[in-house]
Design brief:
single chain; alpha/beta; inorganic pyrophosphatase (n-terminal core); Diaminopimelate Epimerase, Chain A, domain 1; 2 domains; 6-stranded parallel beta sheet
């Protein structure tokens, strides 16, 4: 971040600051946003944190999560604060269209915008930017940001818990998107004295009975294996959503189970939403699901973990996904 001196000066005196993240915030979006908020509060700033839509109940253990604003629900409460905001942070997204109507609202303000993100091809909507596509997560970049500001000393257990949450969730427990700095960052978090095992348990071992039954249903009734392309697909339709009362976060991690099979290199979870069909993609090795999401489903993400969406019928999306497989997967003989 070449403009660090200017940003230090901007944040030298207390300001009204809004921290924003993308729709359907995940562990990295929430962890990085709350970690940054806790840090900025220590500097005397007045901070509010928001994203367009609800967050998964898994992350209710995060500090100050009860103060998180859901813009779709609380926009009237937030409007007066946005009017007086002097600085707006954009975390874990690189284009204002990722935050829907909130993006239009931000674009209309006079606030300085600071983007901290690790996704490809950021759009030029910000005044200050910390963009690093080699970073494991935005949470990792928030800790780096604190260092650039000469404020790593403000790291405490609450901030560390948030940053580690982002690290763990965006790397799949350090299985992908890692680099040496990722583990150095994790070590710094552990040095604060936080219980790493407890955080892992809170993230991965807090499933409800409904979620376990949904997982069993998805694997037994909704899984399809395309052996010639080493691909696994799980499809959840509107009837599944009704029968299992699927809420936000209930399908989190289901797609990863497909990659537990040694012969599966590409995994897709396709879900029928009320207005749109979403696709979540994971892969092993050099297979870039980011290209698939970007080129065919108006999405993006990372090389081995991406997602997208498409308007239209569920059947058409499934057919389209199967049609493009030969473009990305080498066909093998089935014996």
């Amino acid at each position: 971040m070449e403009e660090i001196k200017d940003l230090k000066e901007l944040l030298r005196m207390p300001k009204n600051i809004l921290i924003t993240s993308h729709r359907n915030p995940d562990g990295d979006a929430l962890g990085s946003s709350i970690a940054l908020s806790l840090y900025l509060q220590k500097l005397g700033h007045k901070v509010k944190v928001t994203a367009p839509s609800e967050y998964p109940s898994t992350f209710t253990y995060l500090p100050q999560i009860e103060d998180f604003y859901i813009y779709d629900v609380h926009h009237e409460e937030l409007e007066p604060f946005i009017d007086v905001c002097e600085v707006i942070f954009s975390l874990d997204y690189n284009g204002l269209d990722r935050i829907d109507k909130l993006g239009e609202r931000i674009a209309a303000t006079d606030a300085k915008i600071v983007m901290i993100d690790h996704h490809l091809d950021p759009e030029p909507f910000y005044d200050f930017g910390l963009s690093d596509t080699s970073s494991s997560s935005t949470a990792e970049l928030v800790y780096h940001f604190m260092g650039l500001m000469d404020h790593a000393k403000y790291l405490d257990q609450d901030i560390a818990q948030c940053i580690l949450t982002g690290l763990i969730t965006d790397t799949g427990s350090f299985k992908y998107n890692t680099r040496p700095n990722t583990f150095i960052c994790a070590a710094k978090m552990q040095e604060t004295g936080i219980d790493v095992k407890e955080i892992q348990d809170l993230i991965f071992n807090s499933m409800k009975i409904k979620q376990m039954k949904l997982l069993a249903h998805a694997l037994y009734k909704r899984m399809e294996i395309i052996e010639e392309y080493s691909t696994g697909i799980i499809v959840l339709n509107k009837y599944d959503y009704s029968n299992f009362n699927i809420q936000r976060g209930d399908t989190e991690g289901i797609v990863n189970y497909l990659l537990m099979m040694s012969d599966i290199k590409l995994a897709a979870l396709i879900t029928q939403q009320p207005q749109i069909v979403k696709i979540s993609l994971r892969s092993k090795g050099d297979i870039s699901v980011q290209e698939i999401a970007r080129n065919h489903f108006k999405g993006g993400g990372h090389k081995n973990a991406s997602g997208g969406a498409q308007y239209g019928s569920l059947t058409k999306v499934i057919e389209k996904f199967k049609e493009i497989l030969p473009m990305y997967m080498e066909k093998k003989e089935i014996t």
